[in-house]
# Entry
Amino acid sequence: MGKSDHDHLGKLITYLTAIDAKAAIWIVADPRPEHITAINWLNESRLASFYLLKLEAIQIGESQPAPLLTLIVGPSIEGLEVGDKKKQLAERHILRRKFWSMLLERAKTKTKLHATISASVYNYISTGAGKGGLTYAYVVAQHESDVELYIDRGKDCKDENKAIFNSLKEHQKEIESVFGEPLEWEILDAKRASRIAKYFELVGYRDEETKWPCVQDAMIDAMIRLEKALHPYIAKLKDGP
# Structure
């Protein structure tokens, strides 16, 4: 018995799955860091309970040597919670990428606004609005979504962001007339950025995929109208970072 190795770890997993066991115990003299990490990951996955123990021989005075087993890694509530969070994060990323892929595919037949954007795992996809620090963004949450003009010229530009927002809000009546309905004008006083948005409730990436096309088409239509309504006023703004 010596250092832990890939061969024995592989055999452990193979035997575990072959007999459909619920727990596995691996006893080694010298557990290597990469195998400690691997056992932690296996415990987080909830596939089974994995225990990694270190075996040493100890002697007290003139006594005969005796074995000492030390638990190096085992299942824990904290580890299971970490595993659940990682699983949720991975699932969230998969769903978002799928949502954006579908939306972009539908959008490209109607507008070139986000034609160069790829699907991402994040809760938004965006493209420039023609002036530095201004972007047109699609945003999706678990059960809602929106399209928006996001105003953020970066660090130390809070006052400039608010000034841009206020200059656009002076034309709220004209902008909403072209857009065709009211918009949400969110100056976000406590934050650096501001936004002008149209929200769609009840459908997000956690909802049934059969509901996605309807809200995606509504988002695309709103984005086209938002860009049309704001473009004349954004064009008059000074450029920025």
